[in-house]
Amino acid sequence: MNNVVPVETAKPATWPALPRVGVLLVNLGTPDTADAPGVRVYLKEFLSDARVIEDQGLIWKAVLNGIILRSRPRTKALDYQKIWNTEKNESPLKTITRSQADKLGAALSDRSHVVVDWAMRYGNPSIKAGIDALIAKGCERILAVPLYPQYSASTSATVCDEVFRVLTRLRNQPTLRVTPPYHVDAAYIEALATSIEAHLTTLSFKPELIVASFHGMPKSYVDKGDPYQSHCVATTEALRSRLGMDETKLLLTFQSRFGNDEWLQPYTDKTMERLAKEGVRRIAVVTPGFSADCLETLEEIAQENAEIFKHNGGEAFSAIPCLNDSEPGMDVIRTLVLRELQGWI
Length: 345
What we know:
Elements: E1 20-30, H1 36-47, H2 58-83, H3 92-107, E2 114-123, H4 127-136, E3 139-146, H5 153-168, E4 175-178, H6 186-200, E5 209-215, H7 219-223, H8 228-243, E6 250-255, H9 268-277, E7 282-286, H10 295-311, E8 316-319, H11 327-340
């Protein structure tokens, strides 16, 4: 009891008139460099996450370190080089996410006690760096914003996991909030529809149909209770309703499968092949699950799947940009953030 500070000598805590609030935008991640070493570091962190690959046993670790990390970084580095922002020497995902944070900060500039920063779940800037920076600026409350419209354990939940891990190391923790998924939010659906309609007016052809391609997931994850598939279906149905299209004019598919397990179907690449062989000649593809253009949209969809479609008889293919830092895209982020900051600002 000798270490007890007498009440009469204890210094009262000092509180600012209006506590500072931090907003941390978080996207998936990116290699720091578009070469094999950079991609290897990124893939090791990504594929070592038990939210991404649930079975992290000895067999997986042997496959990861003995096969995947020996061969895949070279091929993926070539893909990154096709889309790399050479001016800034970074991936487009990093460029766009930074811009989203900058524009959100500008939109909230009339609230001087709100600080906006950004981070990546894998790679840099890390979530830890983002939280540390906000705390250093005096933020006592932090709103984490996973930039995934549709929830899944392998995206939204792993962001929360990492945020919580960072907080476990802190004695003086900030108060935390996390934005919910926004897969059927009116502002999000309207922004998607507006961006699609605007893009179609720029094309020299009229698509016979539109494919909505979402990132894939092992079917077993959904069988265990992940709501991701149902969120993708809900987004697509809401978008169909807004655009006045049915399931024959706005198709739902899943891309980016990995490994030998069954993933959510129908697969985007197989759909491209089937549509072309069935006589469809003109299509457009939108990627509603991505808040910013990245390898999966700029290379996998706009290049690989365009080639699959044309190789099998298709003639015209257009990849519709993600919402990115466009005005409609920023409206979505701003609406989401202001809604979740109620009571704090």
